Amino acid sequence: MESIDVDATDLRLLDQLQRDASLSNQALAERVHISPPTCLRRIKRLMEAGFIERQVAILNTEKLAPTLGYGLTAIVEITLDRQGADLLEAFEARVAADQAVQQCYRVSPGPDFCLVVFARDMPDYLALAQRLFTSDANVRNVKAFFSLKRSKFEPGIPLQA
């Protein structure tokens, strides 16, 4: 990946994309006040430089609930018994590879990791806990908090142009 300088126009593009990545190139160019070819070239450059990791759709859990069930979202604190770099990296890689783990943060002070996990129901969460935590002899403590209501979910980064 090349190293690039990000200017105010790039920041406006990134801000618009994180709000709505489904915008056409034409609409995005109009919102940022640049030409469509310039817009396309800049977006390609930002992607190649790694500023845009990927583009995804954020699904509405309330609308999907009749089809999939509401499921359980849990914020889980994990404390390891030993915190050697190799042990931290091994745990992190193992949980990050699991589809039920939506987010994984290495944190300090306090627990070693905070995870956001999703399970279909409590038996599914128990299977997840067994698979990721109980079976790992280095996991000393697990503390789970179950979400009753999601009041806000905004994955965007505040950008100042």
From TrEMBL:
Q: Would the keyword Cytoplasm be found if you checked this record's keyword annotation?
A: no
- The HTH asnC-type domain covers 6-71
Could you give a GO molecular-function term held by this entry?
A: sequence-specific DNA binding
| One GO location term (cellular component) | cytosol
What GO biological process term is on the record, naming one? regulation of DNA-templated transcription
Entry keyword annotation includes Repressor: no
Report the domain of life of the source organism: Bacteria
Query: InterPro entries, from UniProt?
Result: ArsR-like_HTH, AsnC-type_HTH_dom, Dimeric_a/b-barrel, Tscrpt_reg_AsnC-like, Tscrpt_reg_AsnC/Lrp_C, WH-like_DNA-bd_sf, WH_DNA-bd_sf
What are the record keywords, sorted? DNA-binding, Transcription, Transcription regulation
Question: Do you know which Pfam families this protein is assigned to?
Answer: AsnC_trans_reg, HTH_24
Q: What is this protein called?
A: AsnC family transcriptional regulator
